[in-house]
């Protein structure tokens, strides 16, 4: 982790820090980082260099949306919560059943229109509201049947999917294969 004044390799200086880190997000204006790892979910405080283990559940990725809500993907499912709740060891319920998401989510991002994108190995879910079903992009609408290796939103809001076999571009008009 880099700060304005330090570069910290916390495995070197902090006892019981996770070795296999999948994702890190900064909790703005609090001097804390949330860490997703194969060993669980952790909070790291930059002020006193302490680390607190929240749980032991394999956690894949983390995302803080524009409204400062926290999205957590773990082997138990996807949590939509707040940092305060995480600090209190209360992740709440997963949104998987309510949103009909039955895939392991490995990347989460948000586009300018406010949609949150959840990316699994073979599907992409576009969520505008937790009160609505997500839009699912998968092989049935033309997404490649190959494993999604990378996902990118460009500054024109085009969605790019990278695979072993090539690249696909999703615009608001079409899904095109580009090699």
What is the 3D form? globular
DSSP strand tally: 15
Number of helices: 3
From the N-terminal CA to the C-terminal CA, the straight-line distance is: 35 Å
**SSE succession:** HEEEEEEEHHEEEEEEEE
Largest sheet: 4 strands, antiparallel
Query: What's the mean pLDDT score?
Result: 87
Our estimate of the beta-strand percent is 35-45%
In angstroms, what is the radius of gyration?
Answer: 17 Å
Concise overview:
It contains three helices and 15 strands. Strand 6 (70-74) and strand 7 form a beta hairpin.
Structure, explained:
- It is a single chain.
- The longest helix has 5 residues, at 83-87.
- The chain is mainly β and 179 residues long.
- Helices cover 7% and strands 41% of the residues.
- The chain has helices spanning 10-13, 83-87, 96-99; strands at residues 21-27, 32-37, 40-45, 50-55, 59-64, 70-74, 77-81, 107-110, 116-119, 124-127, 135-137, 150-153, 159-163, 166-170, 175-178.
- The radius of gyration is 17 Å and the shape is globular.
- It has a four-stranded antiparallel sheet. Strands 8-9-10-11 form a four-stranded antiparallel sheet, with no helix packed on it.
- The protein contains three helices and 15 strands.
What structural keywords apply?
single chain; 179 residues; 4-stranded antiparallel β-sheet; globular; mainly beta
What does the secondary structure layout of this molecule look like, with pairings?
Blueprint: H1 10-13, E1 21-27, E2 32-37, E3 40-45, E4 50-55, E5 59-64, E6 70-74, E7 77-81, H2 83-87, H3 96-99, E8 107-110, E9 116-119, E10 124-127, E11 135-137, E12 150-153, E13 159-163, E14 166-170, E15 175-178
Antiparallel strand pairs: 1-2, 2-3, 3-4, 5-6, 6-7, 8-9, 9-10, 10-11, 12-13, 13-14, 14-15
